[in-house]
Structure formats: C-alpha cells, structure tokens
Write a structure and sequence with these properties.
Layout: H1 8-33, H2 44-98, H3 105-128, E1 130-131, E2 134-135, E3 149-151, E4 161-163, H4 185-238, H5 242-280
Antiparallel strand pairs: 1-2, 3-4
Helix pairs in contact: 1-5, 2-3, 2-4
Length: about 280
C-alpha cells in the first residue's frame, strides 16, 4: 500500500508552494530593482523594445551634448566677432576725427598711432581666438575651409548635422583695412568708407553666427524633448509599478501562507490517520 503522504496530493502541494515562493522572489526582485524586465525571458518582445529605446536615448543624449558643445563653440566665436566689431568701430571713429580739417598733422599722427594698434589687435584676435584647439576667426570656419559640423541627431545624413562653416577670416587684410593710414586728411577720408564696409562685413558675420546659435538652441531643446519622451515610454514599458507590485506581493504572500497551511494540515491529517491505523492494528 502506498503511503498517502507521498502521493499526488503531497506533490501537488509542494509544487504550489514552490510556484508561490518563486513568484515572491520575482516580486521582490522587481521591487528592489525598480524594473519589471530584469531578464529577457520575462517578456522577450518588451525587453527587446526596451533595449532599443535605451540605445536611442543614449544616442540622443550624446547628440544633446554635441549641440551644447557647439553652442559654446559659437558663443566663443560671437564673442571674438564682437571684439573685432568694437575695434573696427573705434577705428572708424578715429578716421572720421582725423578727416576733420581743424586738426594738424601732429594730431593726425597721434590718431594714426592708435589706429595702428587697433589694426594689430584685430590681427592678433583673429589669429589667436580658438575653441578646443580649433581656430575660429582666421578663416578655418569659412565656406571653402574643411567642413566643421555638429552631429545633432542619430543618423549620418545631412539632416542630422549642423554646419559651422559660416565665419570668414576677420584679419585686416580680409577686411581690406590692412594698409589704411589716417595720418593725413585724404587718407582718413578714404579710410572712412573702407572701415564702414569692414563694419558691415563683421556685423553680417555676427548675424550669421547668431542665427546658427539660435538654431543650435532650438535643436538642443527638440532633442531634449525627444529624450524625455523616449525615457517616459521606456519607463512605462520596463519600470516597476510599485503600487501594483506591492499588492501582488501581498497576494503572493497570502497564497504562500495558504499553501504552507494546507501542507501542514495535510501532514497532520496523515499523522492522525497513521495513529488511527496503528491503534486499529
């Protein structure tokens, strides 16, 4: 005769206890990690989608960093152009002052000495201003220079890139004010128009830089929004709903306790039955 305690009922109770215990372990893991997709086997399709979303989020986050770096790059260039513009403006003032017929040659010579310092400072700033080793005002960002682009997306096409080749050289030679001399009234008169044209050129460059700066800011904002939206989607897909998980854990604990009590009751019944058989015998 087969002992009833080793039969199907006992095995069924043990299997129930093991399933409930496994469910408790899974619930505790999801609560502790905050993730409901801790293993690929939990939900293969959702796990694959979560992994893709996290990859996209990482790529877009790096794109945001790229754009922010490009914004700093452009701000540095704009600061240099602002300095050049101020120098050219001051040079134009000196030219207008020197052209005045009430000044003598000595006074014009003094003005021309200051103008020479302005020319030197324009060339110094043009040749020295850089960002992370990249020259900004010497023509390295010109239309015909090597491309300098910001990777502002996750693709390799032109729609994912922003060109920074918008600033031509601001040297005195490029601005056509390198051989200006305001030590005479005639020279000062000629300088006024050339300095006016140089001022327009520099201000136009500032406008282009400002436009690219605005584009970078808009791009960064758009990319940040994409990152936030994808993060929310991935979170909804893979993060643990703590309230629901705690409720499930409580229900699992109740089922586990119930199965333990059922096993205990079964053991007690079998023991009582065994004693009854011994007494009968």
């Amino acid at each position: 005769m087969v002992d009833p305690i080793s039969g199907g009922t006992f095995k069924q109770l043990l299997n129930t206890i093991n399933r409930n215990r496994s469910g408790l372990s899974d619930s505790l893991e999801r609560i502790a990690s905050g993730r409901k997709l801790n293993r690929a086997g939990t939900n293969p399709a959702a796990t694959a989608l979560s992994a893709q979303l996290r990859s996209d989020i990482s790529a877009l986050t790096q794109s945001v960093n790229n754009v922010e770096s490009g914004t700093n790059f452009i701000r540095t260039a704009e600061g240099g152009l602002s300095g050049i513009a101020d120098l050219v403006s001051r040079g134009r003032e000196l030219a207008i002052q020197s052209s005045n017929g009430t000044l003598n040659d000595s006074q014009r010579q003094t003005l021309n000495q200051e103008f020479g310092q302005i020319q030197s400072e324009v060339d110094r700033l043009t040749s020295s201003l850089e960002f992370n080793g990249k020259k900004l005002l010497d023509g390295s960002l010109g239309q015909n220079a090597d491309p300098v682009t910001i990777q502002a997306g996750t693709g390799s096409g032109p729609d994912n890139q922003i060109s920074l080749n918008i600033v031509e050289s601001t040297s005195t030679q490029s601005l056509n004010i390198d051989n200006v001399d305001i030590s005479t009234a005639q020279g000062a008169l000629q300088a006024i128009d050339r300095l006016g044209q140089a001022s327009q050129t520099v201000n136009a460059a500032r406008g282009q830089v400002g436009a690219v700066g605005n584009r970078l800011a808009i791009s960064a904002s758009g990319l940040t929004t994409q990152v936030e939206n994808l993060t929310q989607s991935e979170s909804g897909l893979a993060d643990t709903d703590l309230a629901a998980e705690i409720t499930q854990l409580q229900q699992g604990l109740l089922r586990f306790e119930t199965s333990i009590r059922a096993l205990s009751s079964q053991l007690q019944n079998e023991q009582s039955r065994s004693r009854l058989l011994d007494f009968t015998v």
